[in-house]
Design a protein that fits this description.
This protein is mainly beta. Helices cover 2% and strands 48% of the residues.
């Protein structure tokens, strides 16, 4: 599995992408029903990545999702979502949630900077707007509200819940990169929180700003919480563990889970629940056992490929290989946000026995050895790469920054621009002795030769994204319509319709955003239904 802690600068395109996700979301309200010709192959997570969780006075668990742009109200006993608060209710990209003793609940919108809430009688209130980065939120026992910044800032603030007073800055030097993440109020009347990049948990006197280290030597601490006995618990997302600090100061593991976790919560009976931003799951933990409350799985699928009878799915915060015969996960690699070599993944192709991973969010192309889970090569600093394939002794990469398909040497150095005669190059696949490239903006599929010559193979499409070729037929996913078409000669026939994909919010993002991938294997066409968090297949 991927390990290590390589912290790299965050890039603005990830910021813009999450901003788009806040506007679009992934709620059930926008999902279209697939055509009868498409069979559901893999259903995805109920929530598109779960971030903060907190039990409300009604006994339900409130779960935030930045990508889904909603707050799900979960009946943990029935294991179902009973309500969602989304953009229609004024909830945008919520990262964390907290309740006061009156039953009012508040959340942070990490990209907009808004701290907002609902009173117990349903009145929406804006408490503050602190700028991008507002992340953890918690109340003191006497109803004071505290908010910190992480990933886009490092401040710590006291906020007036009614929004009548200006926020008070407590600390502005808890970074770099992140102040505090998932926080909690301690029984000693101090504020506790983890420092994501500093491997420690600190407590803060919120009146003086004085801080002290409570626990050190962690990997990537993501959240802290106290149970009813006043015992400090710590979620380490890189280790996939929940830890407890004992009265003698020692720290022991109370639960072992997967990596890519985000937050956790105790109910009134001290039952422990943990969320995952990588899988979109919520589990109830008891000792070494974990019971699914909401199952995880695919959260935001993009590129697809087939390797050794497994379907490999690029899922932004994870990379997953699924046995095609059994539909079970063979392996899953989870991103540790801004702290692991895997990073985000939006497209994938095969590279002999390895996998070639593309991320326009990280501006990188990486080579992964699936046998070891290790990144064996990482090419950084590219101009918004959308997809990549091996091409002879080179890597051919679709670059949004200059609307080109360019060649990279195996050592990662730039070789040449193969062609810049594109407006929105998206998916690249091998075709005969050259390449096929979908141009989302022009509505074309273009044949590209090794000498850089281009020929329009198909024109008049609507935002073509994912491509696949089988027995002379070209299959294409039209992102803005959800139509999957089979192109043979001059004929283009719609064979299925899935959910429309994600539109770009700005010109700095690829017009396809996370493109809907296609791949053919043994008589079936597999398609990524990005917005429905699912994979479909079609007999061809």
């Amino acid at each position: 599995m991927i390990g290590g802690e390589v912290v790299k600068p965050f890039n603005r395109y990830f910021f813009l992408t999450l901003g788009w996700l806040i506007l679009v979301g992934c709620s059930d309200k926008i999902v279209q029903s697939p055509a009868a010709e498409a069979e559901l192959f893999l259903s995805g997570a109920s929530i598109s990545g779960v971030n903060g969780i907190h039990f409300g006075p009604d006994g339900y668990l409130y779960a935030t999702s930045v990508i889904g742009s909603d707050i799900s109200v979960v009946d943990t006993a029935a294991k179902e979502i009973v309500r969602r608060y989304g953009t229609a209710e004024g909830v945008f990209g919520p990262d964390d949630v907290a309740f006061n003793k009156n039953g009012d609940f508040y959340w942070t919108s990490i990209l907009t900077g808004e701290v907002a809430g609902f009173s117990h009688d349903g009145i929406r209130v804006v408490a503050a707007n602190l700028g991008p980065g507002v992340n953890p939120i918690t109340f003191s026992d006497d109803g004071r509200l505290f908010v910190a910044q992480c990933f886009f800032g490092d401040g710590l603030y006291e906020v007036d819940p009614l929004g009548e007073k200006e926020p008070r800055s407590i600390r502005d030097d808890l970074g770099p990169g992140c102040g505090l993440n998932g926080m909690d109020w301690g029984p000693d009347n101090r504020l506790y929180g983890p420092r994501w990049f500093d491997n420690e948990v600190i407590s803060v006197d919120v009146d003086t700003g004085e801080s002290r280290v409570e626990v050190s030597g962690l990997q990537v601490p993501a959240a802290v919480k106290f149970n009813s006995a006043g015992e400090l618990h710590i979620l380490d997302t890189a280790a996939g563990t929940v830890l407890r600090r004992n009265t003698d100061g020692s720290v022991e593991v109370v639960a072992r889970l997967e990596t890519g976790l985000d937050n956790f919560a105790f109910d009134n009976e001290d039952n422990l629940f943990v969320s995952s931003y990588a899988d979109g799951s919520i589990v109830r933990v008891s000792g070494d056992s974990a019971e699914e409350v909401l199952p995880g799985g695919i959260s935001h699928p993009g590129g697809l490929t087939v390797l050794d009878e497994t379907l490999v799915v690029a899922d932004i915060q994870s990379l997953r290989a699924v046995d095609i015969a059994t539909r079970n996960d063979v392996w899953v690699l989870r991103n540790i946000f801004r702290s692991a070599p895997l990073g985000t993944t939006t497209s994938v192709s095969t590279d002999s026995g390895n996998l070639l991973l593309t991320s326009w969010l990280d501006n990188s192309v990486k080579v992964l050895d699936p046998k070891t889970g290790e990144i064996v090569k990482s090419i950084e600093g590219l101009g918004i790469p959308v997809s990549a394939v091996p091409f002879g002794e080179y890597y051919a990469v679709a670059l949004h920054a200059d609307s080109s398909v360019s060649l990279l040497n195996q050592d990662g150095s730039f070789h040449s621009v193969l062609s810049d005669d594109f407006e929105g190059p998206t998916h690249i696949v091998s075709f005969e002795d050259g390449l096929l490239v979908s141009d989302t903006t022009r509505g074309q599929i273009v044949r590209l030769t090794a000498s850089g010559e281009t020929q329009v193979v198909v024109d008049g499409l609507t935002s073509p994204e994912g491509l696949a070729v089988h027995n002379g037929t070209i299959y294409v996913f039209e992102g803005s319509t959800g139509k999957i078409k089979a192109v043979s000669g001059s004929n283009a026939t719609t064979i299925a319709t899935l959910s429309a994909g994600s539109p770009a919010a700005t010109s700095q993002q690829p017009p396809s955003m996370v493109f809907n991938g296609l791949v053919v294997h043994e008589g079936f066409l597999y398609a990524a239904d990005e917005m429905n968090r699912s994979i479909y297949r079609i007999a061809i």
